[in-house]
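This part of the workshop introduces the protein records we will be handling. The structure tokens are whole numbers drawn from a learned vocabulary of backbone shapes. The record below serves as our worked example for the rest of this section.

===
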Amino acid sequence: MRNYNRDLLVLMKTTTLSDEALDKHLECLDTVLKIVENDNTFCASHELVARNSITTKRKKILKAVSTPELKLFYFLINKN
């Protein structure tokens, strides 16, 4: 089984999967997540509220999330 650098909990209904089948499922899941987990999709699905303004500018959003914590009165809003 490959070691993926993710913290995921995968629940399966069947317990009769072989190690190869389980590895194939995890590989497919990892492939799907790599496609959607990037800066473009993150910025497209979030807005940054900075005090009195709302922005969807990619550069400002990435700059704000580059720190471990957002500045005071900065909020990320998910558009979904």
